[in-house]
Amino acid sequence: MSIAAIDAKHAGKFDDRELTAEVIRSFDATPDPRLKFILEQVVTSLHDLVRRTNLTFEEWERAIDFLTRTGQACTPLRQEFILLSDVLGVSMLVDAVNHREREGATQTTVLGPFYVGEHKPTPHGSDISQGIAGEPMFVRSRVTDLAGQPLAGAEIDVWHADDDGFYDSQKPSYGTQGPSLRARFVTDAEGRFAFRTILPCSYPIPTDGPVGELIAATKRHPMRPAHVHFLVKAQGFEPLVTHVFIEGDQYLDSDAVFGVKDELVARIERHDEPLMPDGTPASEPWHLMAYEFQMKPGAGVVPEPMMAAAE
């Protein structure tokens, strides 16, 4: 075979059509069949994107630069890649395909980039917002199975942003002062738990990094509606990762990370009584959040924190 014929043969193998098949064949010896399948699908989809868009060198270089800077923005207290996954709707899509059948169980939603892991159990009725400005709120909740029977000993991690829209882990003081507006509770014999905090507000996702540049370039707003995060675990049941949103928030229909589901929106009642439900004196009007979580039988893996928890 002539040199010209050999060159033509190799050129055919690596043109814009044959190259994809050649790359996929390179994974033939992959011992893990699931990894092999996912790599094949990723390569196929990525190559198809390049062909469909006639991607230029400059555009691909910009994409690589964006992803590089996204990785560089990640720290032990910041997860820019989760944020990117959230704003592209990938986090909610992964959630959706893994929770197609809820069978009456409470709906799931994104974990978000500010979960730092479990904390030591906190007594019922504790104020997790000590020293933080905001309108007082009392959270009264219950965990049950699908038949409404209480689940005693269920473990619940809660966390939410402050009145300025920041999570504790976004603040320089987090490493020395530890957590605030987050805690872990264990349900009583009736499946109940309660705590005091402040009324959460809508807030912008972090916009000082590459994801913020993407939001600005596409003229999207960065806002999330007010919510409280809950991670509920009970033996014999699937772990539940969800939010409870505040009814009436202006961003419920345009959440920057697509995380709102109608079943997760709660009506928050304003009260003027001098005592909260647990007898705590109230020196100003306060709000009541009441929500019941229904757990689905089964098993599952509790999400690993992508950020470092305070010691």
Distance between the termini: 69 Å
Q: How many strands appear in the DSSP assignment?
A: 11
What coarse outline follows from CA principal-axis ratios? Answer: globular
Radius of gyration equals 24 Å
Q: Mind describing the biggest β-sheet?
A: 5 strands, mixed
Name the poorly predicted regions.
3-8
Q: Can you give the helix content as a percent range?
A: 25-40%
What key attributes describe this structure?
311 residues; alpha+beta
Give a brief description:
The protein is of the alpha+beta class. The chain has helices spanning 3-13, 18-25, 33-53, 57-72, 80-87, 90-98, 174-177, 210-217; strands at residues 136-144, 155-159, 182-186, 192-198, 203-204, 223-224, 227-233, 240-246, 265-266, 269-271, 286-294. Strands 3-2-7-8-9 form a 5-stranded mixed sheet, with no helix packed on it. It has a 4-stranded mixed sheet with strand order 4-1-11-10, with no helix packed on it.
How would you portray this structure in words?
With 311 residues, this protein is α+β, with helices and mostly antiparallel strands. Helices cover 27% and strands 19% of the residues. The strands form 3 sheets. It has a 5-stranded mixed beta sheet, with no helix packed on it. A 4-stranded mixed beta sheet has the order 4-1-11-10, with no helix packed on it. Strands 5-6 form a two-stranded antiparallel sheet. β7 (227-233) and β8 (240-246) form a beta hairpin. The radius of gyration is 24 Å and the shape is globular.
Topology:
Elements: H1 3-13, H2 18-25, H3 33-53, H4 57-72, H5 80-87, H6 90-98, E1 136-144, E2 155-159, H7 174-177, E3 182-186, E4 192-198, E5 203-204, H8 210-217, E6 223-224, E7 227-233, E8 240-246, E9 265-266, E10 269-271, E11 286-294
